[in-house]
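Here is one record:
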Amino acid sequence: MTQVEVKEKNKKLEEDLKSHGCHYGRAKRFTHSSMKQFLLKFEKRGNLEFFNLNKTIEGLNSASNYIVELIKEQKLILFVGAKPAAEKAVEKIAKEFNMPYLNYKWVGGFLTNFQTIKTRIEYFKSLLQKEESGEIEEYPPADKKRLLRELDKMKKVYSGVKELDRIPDAIFIIDLKYPPHNTARNEAIKMNLPIIAICGSDNDTRGVKIVIPANDKAPSSINFLIDYLINKIKEKLQAQNG
């Protein structure tokens, strides 16, 4: 691809990013110092931050290249988006590449106390087996009701990680400012796991390997970014496989 073609392609991508609201940051009073390098610098820019979309495109390309590398090496990436605006997008990209995900809540200690978490996952799988086999129907009514209620809660939390039997090799997070996600980031740092993150202007990016600077609050922005990554990753994997 020639430089002119690359320029035109990026120009089209910038237009698409804008049309989906990916360029919007938060009000200036929320800006984190680590994000300033990714923002446009206007003398008179009002109260709202705007992303430099060239930096967003760089982040998307770096993230897609790195995820392709991890996939080729058969590494596991844990996708995290445990808030309403991100839950569908996180499930979509994780399932596309057969990766684990958490999109209902972040379980404290998921990374730093994984052996305990693993026992919960095994217990969840045992309950699923009892449900599928009909064994759970043979329990006394009170026990059956309790187990089904417990199983329903566990499905929301653990369905995306039920096949995970070890600590993942990397973690992908949408919106580090969201308190549970900040906990996930801190656990990943303690475990020396690489972090890829879609980061709004209020995010603290310290410890993050790859930053995708963009609107991490709006579903339209998140969905577009995730769809772009899915397509880019598939394209690169196909190219490498010939």
Remarks:
- The first helix runs from residue 3 to 19.
- DSSP finds seven helices and seven strands in the chain.
